[in-house]
Amino acid sequence: MPTMDPANSNPARAEELKVLANEAFNVFSWIREAHKFAQAIDLYTQAIDLNGDNAVYWANRALAHTKLEEYGSAIIDATKAVEIDPKYSKGYYRRGAAYLAMAKFKEALKDFQQVKKLCPNDPDASKKLKECEKAVMKLKFEEAISVPESQRRSVADSVDYTTIGTGTESSYFPPKVTAVAAAVVLPAVLAVYVGTKAAIVVAAAIMATVLVFLGAWWLRSNDHVFSKNQSLDLVVEPEYAGARIEGDVVTLDFVKKMMDDFKNQKSLHRRYALQIVLQTREMLRSLPTLVDVNVPDGKHFTVCGDVHGQFYDLLNIFELNGFPSEDNPYLFNGDFVDRGSFSVEVILTLFAFKCMCPTAMYLARGNHESKSMNKIYGFEGEVRSKLSEIFVELFAEVFCCLPLAHVINNKIFVVHGGLFSVDGVKLSEISAIDRFREPPEEGLMCELLWSDPQPQLGRGPSKRGVGLSFGADVTKKFLKENNLDLVVRSHEVKDEGYEIEHDGKLITVFSAPNYCDQMGNKGAFIRFEAPSLKPNIVTFSAVPHPDVKPMAYANNFFRMFS
């Protein structure tokens, strides 16, 4: 338990600061000003400096960190709160919510079990614990029936422009998958809803027996989940009035028609969506992990940051800066999807421009182009709702093909997250990364997607709980060792849409204004003119969108804590 120097302790003043922090954290301020979260953190920090033995201050600061998506810092603060007061339920609750946001369901479950133990008669605690138990059970079952990577067959290789799934309703699951689902779901229901040890033992025995039987049945047969003899012909109905691709060529007229349909909340036929996704996959697979971009003298190149499913703000970027073309190329620097509820429209638009003209649209992977993030933050649910189940796996495969970084004219290094936990990383090492996989939790690939700059020199722990924080000395050394001039990255909300840090050697650009309809920030993009490559930063405000809330398709369990 922390102790304080009595000379520095001032509990009365600390309580005054807590009240001010709570006011800064008021729900009505959330919609207007993102910096209120940071202000609240600063005030809670001052209160902690005066009275570090108060668990409430630590837990409240944890909540403020959570609102800024600083889940690593939230876990540290909530842990301190329960160390001070092991019976303080809000400490466990807030740590569990932070673990949940990081897709660490098993760790979250332990905390919610403790909340339930401390508050046995709290119906809200009971509800959240039960939902968490379901999530962990589902995760365990998925792990149990998952196919080893070496044996996994590509979904994209099993479909074409006119085939998908099985049956007249495009059912994704053939009978064997349905049987496995039944073998998993029925024991799960028994275990979760009955809840006794005996029920869990019986459930496990039933599941093991059925899965062994089904496994032998499956192995004796030759058909595959996605085999083409089980496919659905995706004929475009005569009454379909939306955008159409003639043949294999995606044209600007098609993309404009598709965007106009999306703007009016109309859908693209799945046949054309499939074509766009598969064509984009082929293009991305052929690219290196580190892409060199050449901007001729007299030409320009635009870099955009996170879009996060905010389709109407994406349209505004094109309104301000022109459509992508060979003479007006863009790089979108990751996090195209999740959070915003128009992620399908965003990703199909970006992919369509890539198909139309590969040199007009460059795309980099962000930390949200991953299964673990998409399961929680909305993209997976949105894809199921607007397209079909098979597209969930298709997008996951395509995301694994996205390059991890770009270098513009051998001088500007562009990456979604940031730099590394070790010195001496060369561009050749980045090029050699095997990117065709889900992001790991450590190593160069993880750090490229997750790391953040910090004002202090050196390196520190990540406020997110993944990757690290790095100072100006780390940035300058990386640039010098690789004969580069500037790092451009995204990954963080900024009040003005951008921030210049590390003595001008690093720029953060974020292109989702009024992020999640509540942060009040501007968006930005950067135009680089060759040969000088001097950054011209353009900021813009959010535009109206239909009344579909952010996270509308997110995991129901996660929305309970948002």
Automatic annotation (TrEMBL):
Give the main EC class: hydrolase
Pfam families xref list: Metallophos (PF00149), PPP5 (PF08321), TPR_1 (PF00515), TPR_8 (PF13181)
What Gene3D superfamilies has UniProt attached to this entry? 3.60.21.10, Tetratricopeptide repeat domain
Kinase keyword on record = no
Out of the domains of life, which is the source? Answer: Eukaryota
Q: Where are the TPR repeats?
A: 55-88, 89-122
- CDD domains per record: MPP_PP5_C (cd07417)
Q: Which SUPFAM superfamilies match?
A: Metallo-dependent phosphatases, TPR-like
* Alphabetic keyword roster: Hydrolase, Manganese, Membrane, Metal-binding, Repeat, TPR repeat, Transmembrane, Transmembrane helix
- Cofactor(s) needed: Mn(2+)
Transmembrane regions listed in the UniProt entry: 177-194, 200-219
The record's EC number reads: 3.1.3.16
Keyword Flavoprotein tagged: no
Q: Give all residue intervals belonging to the Serine/threonine specific protein phosphatases domain.
A: 268-544
Q: Which PROSITE patterns match?
A: TPR
What does the similarity note say?
Belongs to the PPP phosphatase family. PP-5 (PP-T) subfamily.
Name of the featured protein: protein-serine/threonine phosphatase
Provide the organism lineage as a comma list.
Eukaryota, Viridiplantae, Streptophyta, Embryophyta, Tracheophyta
